Each structure stands twice: as structure tokens, then as C-alpha cells.
Write the C-alpha cells for this entry.
Amino acid sequence: LNLRTRQLPILPVPKTEFVMIVVFGLEYIFRIWSAGCCCRYRGYYIIVLITSVAVVSAGSQGNVFATSALRSLRFLQILRMVRMDRRGGTWKLLGSVVYAHSKELVTAWYIGFLVLIFSSFLVYLVEKEFNKDFDTYADALWWGTITLTTIGYGDKTPQTWTGRLLSAGFALLGISFFALPAGILGSGFALKVQEQHRQKHFEKRRNPAASLIQVRMNRFLTSSSRPHKIAQGLNVTSA
């Protein structure tokens, strides 16, 4: 066979694509219809709809529904990962930890924000006449954010000794407050997980204890009422 003269069959891509969209669209509609009669327990599958539109826009070649607006929705396929936690236990755990330690988090962020503002302003006052990297206060804020969060890109650095001393002092002070939320959340997660394990262990012990108490109570009631019934039977027969 001559591979050069061999012609491959041309597949009707637009028609095949249209048929697939119709088939999967009908399947999506039937799934919603057959999900149950109670609307309270039936979702609208919004994430499935968004990801389906994203898949269609990513797989199309501009023949059916692919447009420049839909092509920008390709990144929404990442939302499929949200379905891994349908019950929302992860977000509930995170919300409970943040709510339980909200005062500590607000205090740490507030002090860290004040350190960021003052350190950036003082370094800006010292460096603005000698360093072109600190022409505006916004440049100083960018430097302060990158420095106090320990990222350190190195695109802006103080050049005067006064600026370097201020930077070192505020860095040591600010890093301690910027790192506090991580420790607060970490300890909060550990305490919350430990509390959940304790609650599960308590429930496992409570159910057998409750069933045992019910069995003993039923036996006691039946045993205490039996002599009374026997006495009533004897009185009836004697009469």
C-alpha cells in the first residue's frame, strides 16, 4: 500500500459533535427529571451544567456552540473537584474552626496590618530620595507585603543603612504576627478533630448503654406486672 496516495475517510465532525451534545443534553435533562419528586432533596446540578458547558466549549472547533466567550470557561472544569465533598464536611470543619478562633485571628491580622502600614511608610520616607524602587508609597507597600509574608522576590530592596535597619526590625516584628494565623488555625484544626473523635467514641458507648438500660427496664416492668396479673387471675377463678 502506498501511504502517500492513501486517503483517510473524512469524519463529519460537526454532525458528530451536534449528536453528542443532543444525547448528553437529553441525558442531563432525564437525570434531573428522575432524581426524585421532592424538590427539597433534589439539586439543580449547577456544577454539572457549568462543567458540561466548559467541556463543550473546549472540545468544539467553532462549528456548533464554540465562541470566544465560551472558550474562556475552560478553567471551570476544575469545579469538578468540588463534587468530591458533596456533604460539605470539609467546609463546615473550616468554618467552625475559623468561627471558634475568630477573635484571635482578627487580633493577629490587625496587628500585622498595622506593622505593614508603619514599616512601609517609614521605609518610604527614608528611601524615596536615594532609591528609585521606592518612588511611591504603593511601591513601599508592595515591598512591605512581600517582605513581611516571607516571600522575598528581591525586586525592591532598601539601599541606605537606616532603611535596612528599619526593614530588619519590622521584618522580625511583622513575621511573628503574620505567622500567628497559621498556628491558630493549625491548633484549632487539631482540637476540632480531637473533639470529633471524642464525640464519636462517646456515641459508640452511649448507644449500647441506652439499649442495655431499655432491656433491663423492660424486664423489670414485665417481671413486676406478672405477679399482679396472676393474682387477678386467681381472684377471677375463685369468684
